[in-house]
């Protein structure tokens, strides 16, 4: 066994911050997608992300982000990762990062859910299902929210990903009831006929369609990992694991010893500051979802860019608080290009940034052939054997 290189690893997933079409983007109808590139274009030279820039975010690209140039000497190491999983959802991306690629496509519902699923939901809940089509959450709530308030129906919808989403006004269907309905929905889409990645409770509030707001009481009921993940191997070998944001939901709590729910990106950064102040040896894994949920799906490049700049400002504190034996890894789980057609995730490569104050060199990590290289690097650092998915880049960090 080699000597442990870093005492703590902090992995930040910028949900949906892709960096250009993946080699197989054509298979998903995503040719030309480029989340970072199109956000930069929307800002016309005014996107200010100095901390991500000096970490090498632009160096890893084939072309600059409009107005943001590559730096001559990045702080650490930079590269890109491509996905081998059969989908482009958050679950696929995170599972693959943790050594469990999803090789069989999950069920999607481009024409809405079949009668068999709808009837079971209606029979269990005693409520009628309305909607039942692929749609933006904010759009379908604006359209059907007032009807839902009057009738107590369930707004059921999906997207291009493997998701079953149920929206309800918090004053009409209490959260406890909505969660119970979603738990039932989870139980009927675990295969073999239909296997859905995530069932999502989407509560909202507000008096009318002009003022509806989805709340932070969203809850994801995710398909349980179909095998061991790197998080499981870490815990089994005495390495402390912390999950911030959607991480606990994505892995159904498996392999997570300490968890924090995020109200927002900034709330997530507050949690990260708190965890960084603790004295522990282990791996902290965080997802920041606002890029995706608030701006990517809504095709809002200006809001997306502002969220990036807000994160970049908070990143300055993270960099200042890193210790010599800490390692920071920043990546994403897929793309969600706000300058692209439709409203779904986009099949893109994702950034890979690695930095520790103890580094004496910097350079390129190249194009990694799978997201699993991320988790394999974490395992290698803590001298933990996993399932051999991916190749560690730990030895390249000097």
UniProtKB/TrEMBL annotation:
Entry's cofactor comment: Binds 2 manganese ions.
Reactions accelerated catalytically: 2-deoxy-alpha-D-ribose 1-phosphate = 2-deoxy-D-ribose 5-phosphate; alpha-D-ribose 1-phosphate = D-ribose 5-phosphate
Xref: Pfam families: Metalloenzyme (PF01676)
Keyword Cytoplasm set for record: yes
Subcellular compartments: Cytoplasm
Predominant cellular place of this UniProt entry's protein: cytoplasm
Enzyme Commission number(s) from the entry: 5.4.2.7
UniProt GO MF annotations: magnesium ion binding; manganese ion binding; phosphopentomutase activity
Needed cofactors: Mn(2+)
GO CC field: cytosol
Binding of Mn(2+) 2, residues: 292, 297, 345
Domain of life: Bacteria
Metalloenzyme domain segment(s): 7-384
Binding-site residues, Mn(2+) 1: 15, 333-334
Classification via InterPro entries: Alkaline_phosphatase_core_sf, DeoB, Metalloenzyme, Phosphopentomutase_DeoB_cap_sf
Pathway: Carbohydrate degradation; 2-deoxy-D-ribose 1-phosphate degradation; D-glyceraldehyde 3-phosphate and acetaldehyde from 2-deoxy-alpha-D-ribose 1-phosphate: step 1/2
Transmembrane segments: none
UniProt record, GO biological process: 2-deoxyribose 1-phosphate catabolic process; 5-phosphoribose 1-diphosphate biosynthetic process; metabolic compound salvage; nucleotide metabolic process
UniProt keyword list: Cytoplasm, Isomerase, Manganese, Metal-binding
Catalytic class of the enzyme: isomerase
HAMAP family reported in the protein's UniProt record: Phosphopentomut
UniProt xrefs under PANTHER family: PHOSPHOPENTOMUTASE (PTHR21110)
General function of this protein: Isomerase that catalyzes the conversion of deoxy-ribose 1-phosphate (dRib-1-P) and ribose 1-phosphate (Rib-1-P) to deoxy-ribose 5-phosphate (dRib-5-P) and ribose 5-phosphate (Rib-5-P), respectively.
Protein name (database record): Phosphopentomutase
Lineage: Bacteria, Bacillati, Bacillota, Bacilli, Lactobacillales
